[in-house]
């Protein structure tokens, strides 16, 4: 398949008995990375979980959103992946086993 991050080129030209005409050229980029999700918020919380919600990104990079990856940690350097959503329709995630004494 086509890989993100590469630009592909295509050409097409008309063909007659006299030969090929001048080609039309097109540059093709399969897709880019999406922008950040919007309206990222806490939906609910307790001492053992945090339920997060968000709206899809405004710019998808011209690719369909397949799902979301959720990261958490108590600092930028300690962020670890804590989950994934199974589809793009899932715009909420429950992060369980949070430590009540840590700030996320």
How are the secondary structure elements laid out?
Blueprint lengths: L7 E5 L2 E2 L2 E2 L3 E5 L9 E8 L3 E7 L13 E4 L7 E5 L7 E5 L8
Antiparallel strand pairs: 1-4, 2-3, 5-6, 6-9, 7-8
Q: Explain this structure to me?
A:
The chain is an all-beta fold and 104 residues long. The model has no long low-confidence stretch (mean pLDDT 88). A hairpin with a 2-residue loop joins strand 2 (15-16) and strand 3. The strands form four sheets. A three-stranded antiparallel beta sheet has the order 5-6-9, with no helix packed on it. The chain has a two-stranded antiparallel ribbon with strand order 1-4. It has strands at residues 8-12, 15-16, 19-20, 24-28, 38-45, 49-55, 69-72, 80-84, 92-96.
- The sequence of SSEs as H and E is EEEEEEEEE
Estimated share of beta-strand residues? 35-45%
Pairing-aware structural class of the strands and helices?
Answer: mainly beta
Query: What is the percent of helical residues?
Result: under 10%
